[in-house]
Amino acid sequence: MKILITGGAGFIGSNLVDYFLSQNHEVVCLDNLSTVFKKNIEHNLDNPNFTFIEGDIRDIQTCIHATMHCDYVSHQAALGSVPRSIEVPANTNSVNIDGFLNILIAARDAKVKRFVYAASSSTYGDSKKLPKVEEEIGRPLSPYAITKYVNELYADVFAKTYGMQCIGLRYFNVFGKRQDPNGAYAAVIPLWAKNLIDHKQQVINGDGNYSRDFTYIDNVIQANEKALYTPTEQILKGQREYYNLELDEHKYLLQLNDQKQYSKMDEGKVERWKGGKEECWKDGMMEDC
Question: Which one from 19, 124, 144, 149 is the annotated catalytic residue?
Fold first, then answer.
């Protein structure tokens, strides 16, 4: 099987590249390296089953070239981060919507067997319902959330109009190896882990009594494999085409921070970050569907 993984040099994408190569699949990696490091895939460059294309999903010809002769597409490329989308919404829209549509069109024209894409828990927006159920979402709280919701709408239309098999996986705060702890948009777990290693104090915005679901990268790999290869009659027929992906256990930030000697509260700094939600956990795992 030949798989195109967009964003394949990124945190999640590079882990998927490694896994599918270990399963003796041919893997094409498409990435523009704008927010990630080529070192994530350098160890695969001499692998005869691996092809790296440095290019941008906003260029339709690049997408057409990358999908050529591929059996499956795993679309992980995106401009992440809610705060970044608030600062530069046009860039987020261009990559996450225009780029998504380009790769979707290219996948359709290449007649791939299935198109699996990274959706997001941000789609739940201002919904206060707990646990989170796929069919019940709220209004988006950020430009990033809007783009990920639009992805789901496009995938649904392409499935109904062109007969494509499209599956979205709504990621809930993925963490694990190769996640970058540096920069203004670093996620909480790698950032805190780095601070612990460096013996620096943690900063908890607000009082820390808000929760998130966290998902380890190996579970993301497993879910993507299931989404790509599970027989159609078991995963698509008569069922939804997007699934929550997390470990069914929500954690408060104070629970994560059990190294009190290195922590401090900063209630005056930020009471609630823009575009976020206080509680986010879900019901219904990919494995159950």
Answer: 144
